[in-house]
Amino acid sequence: MSTLTSLSDFMLYDLHSHTRASDGMLTPEALVLRAVQMRVGVLAITDHDTVAGIAPARAALIQHQLPLQLINGVEISTLWEHHEIHIVGLGIDAHASEMRQFLAAQAASRLTRAQLIAEKLEKAHIHGALDGVLRLAEGGAVTRGHFARYLIEQGKADNMAQVFKHYLARGKTGYVPPQWCTIKQAIDAIHHSGGCAVLAHPGRYGLSAKWLKRLIVCFTEFGGDAMEVAQCQQPPNERRQLGDYAQEYGLAASQGSDFHQPCPWIELGKKLWLPGGVEAVWTRFPHLVG
After folding, report:
1. pLDDT for 167-212, tens place per residue?
2. pTM score, two decimals?
3. Which of 26, 175, 227, 268 is deepest in the core (most CB within 10 A)?
4. What distance in Å separates the CA atoms of residue 123 and residue 174, rounded to the nearest whole number?
5. Residue 46, Cβ neighbours under 10 Å: how many?
6. How far apart are CA 27 and CA 63, in angstroms?
7. Domains along the sequence of the chain with CATH
8. Could you tell me how many helices (H) and strands (E) the chain has, helices first?
9. Which of 133, 112, 104, 105 shows the shortest CA–CA distance to 176?
10. 114, 107 Cβ separation under 8 angstroms
């Protein structure tokens, strides 16, 4: 691990988590309570294309007098070379008009895609999908995760992995290509709202080393600030490799569980540490936790 140089280095940072405002299973209040239980000192809530979970989470911090620093965040879905790439915004102004307008457009794209997925499932004799996912989303951002939960409810699969494999992956019954914004548009929206842009979980896109480097180069040229280097679950040597890429391309390093629900292998704060030689995103951008 990196040498500890200041009091902030003793804090446990988890800069990627989700609530019921998107496809997480916990309310914002339950999420911050669990973060404290798991000894997280700094938490970013980064719901998919929405900031709706931030205000209730902050209210819970005050109500319960929790010893937790909360960073305003969002995880934006983008499209790059036919791949869905996620960009996390940290330290954003959740009330910035440009960010609000941008996220409204993303929400409209999500709803349109959900309608098209539901139509395809209807043709496959799986009825009521749109009403089902809207019920499960409870007014939050609609995601394919909600479709997966609905299909499990309907007995079409036993778990999320099966649903995606048989219904929602590219070429399957309910697959609809996304129509997201570009990486540059996401980065610009984050910067205009005062945040820093982080390339989320770069090891999960199924890219070869050559294509991953192409992605990082594009992200950097578009003004990206950091990349996630450490997650709870990673293949052997991935953390070190991503750390090397962060150094090579001048990006700060971030870490996050991508927490959605309590489970043994992906948990708030679990196995989150940065390899030596990288510059932590909270060090390069100290205003995030100021």
Report:
1. 998 899 999 998 999 999 999 999 999 999 999 999 999 999 999 9
2. 0.92
3. 227
4. 10
5. 32
6. 15
7. 7-103+180-289 (3.20.20.140), 115-168 (1.10.150.650)
8. 10, 7
9. 112
10. no
Determine contact, residues 183/222, Cβ cutoff 8 Å.
Answer: yes
Give the rounded distance of the alpha carbon of 61 from its chain centre. 21
CA dist 44 and 127 (Å) reads 37
Residue 271's alpha-carbon distances to 178, 184, 218, 243, 261, in angstroms, are: 32, 31, 29, 15, 16
Its sign, for the CA torsion 203, 20, 25, 30, is: positive
Structure tokens at 41: 């000192």
Q: Is 50 helix (H, G, I), strand (E, B) or coil?
A: coil
pLDDT digits (tens, 9 = 90+) for 213-228: 999 999 999 999 999 9
* Amino acid identity at 161: A
Cα–Cα distance measured from residue 258 to residue 38, given in angstroms and rounded to the nearest whole number = 15
Rg over CA atoms, the chain: 18
d(CA 26, CA 133): 17
